[in-house]
Amino acid sequence: MWVVIYGATVYYVFTGQMMIAMYWMAIGMFLQASIDLIVGLISSRVKKGKLSNSIGKK
Question: In which domain, by residue range, is 14 found?
Answer without folding.
Answer: 2-54
